[in-house]
Amino acid sequence: MYGLVNQAIEDMITHQFSVAKWEEIKKTACLGDMAGFENMQSYPDNLTYDLIGAVSKTLDITTEQVLEAFGEYWVLYTAEKGYGDMLKMAGDSLPIFMNNLDTLHSIVGSMMPNLRPPSFQCTEITNHSLKLHYHSKRIGLTNMVIGLIKGLGKRFGTVCEVSLIESKKSEQGQEDVFFVKW
Ligand code: HEM
């Protein structure tokens, strides 16, 4: 994944804990010698998974909890790190924004040619709920999506509930369906 993701993990830990905690996490992930990440450089996915695993071990919380916290943080982080206008363009309410997630990532992809973005579709849309279908070539990031939606809810001041109603892993990747209620 692009270094921006790893940088956001670093930022979350140094802001919510400390630089010392981040150094400990890097050591646990066998990345002790790594000075920092280049935001526009692609890194192996395994490096990001190793960091998530090391955060979980160091903070003694589950990887699901780490991913959810990180998803929530990503919404704030991208808004502050130069992607605020892009987020604004994707919509000014939670349902509109969820409908535009693929457009958002295709705009990101025009700047990051190696991007392998997830894909999202909304179905069964009502005034207060929808089903969000998530497809990814990567496995195991389901809880990140839960955190992302909660983070978007906070961005729009919309109280929302997210529940996972279907989840399938295959050689093609991960296919999940979330019920989002607001
Ligand atoms: C302007 C804001 C955003 C930017 C710049 C951005 C960019 C990225 C980047 C660089 C990756 C790593 C993928 C790769 O390097 O191949 C990624 C992954 C991801 N993004 Fe976004 N993103 C943004 C907003 C969002 C939002 C609001 C969501 C909400 C659902 C989202 C959902 C995801 C998910 C779930 C992944 C994990 C990768 C996967 O599922 O395969 N992103 N995004």
How would the blueprint of this fold be written?
Blueprint: H1 3-16, H2 19-28, H3 45-59, H4 63-89, H5 94-99, H6 101-111, E1 119-123, E2 129-136, H7 142-155, E3 161-170, E4 173-181
Antiparallel strand pairs: 1-2, 2-4, 3-4
Helix pairs in contact: 1-2, 1-3, 1-4, 2-3, 3-4, 4-7
The structure holds protoporphyrin IX containing FE.
The site of protoporphyrin IX containing FE (HEM) has 25 residues, from helix 1, helix 4, helix 6 and helix 7.
Structure description:
By secondary structure, this protein is an alpha+beta fold. The chain contains 7 helices and 4 strands. It has helices at residues 3-16, 19-28, 45-59, 63-89, 94-99, 101-111, 142-155, and strands at residues 119-123, 129-136, 161-170, 173-181. It has a 4-stranded antiparallel sheet with strand order 1-2-4-3. β1 (119-123) and β2 form a beta hairpin. The mean pLDDT is 98. Bound molecules: protoporphyrin IX containing FE. Residues 1-2, 4-5, 75, 78, 83, 86-87, 101, 104-105, 108, 112, 115-118, 136, 138, 141, 144-145, 148, 152 line the site of protoporphyrin IX containing FE. The site of protoporphyrin IX containing FE has 25 residues, from α1, α4, α6 and α7.
Top keywords for this entry?
182 residues, alpha+beta, H-NOX domain, 2 domains, 4-stranded antiparallel β-sheet, 7 helices, 4 strands, globular, binds protoporphyrin IX containing FE
Estimated radius of gyration: 16 Å
Total of domains = 2
Strand order of the largest sheet: 1-2-4-3
By CATH, the topology of the largest domain is H-NOX domain
Q: Name the CATH homologous superfamily of the largest domain.
A: H-NOX domain
What's the level 1 CATH class of the largest domain? Alpha Beta
Bound molecules: protoporphyrin IX containing FE
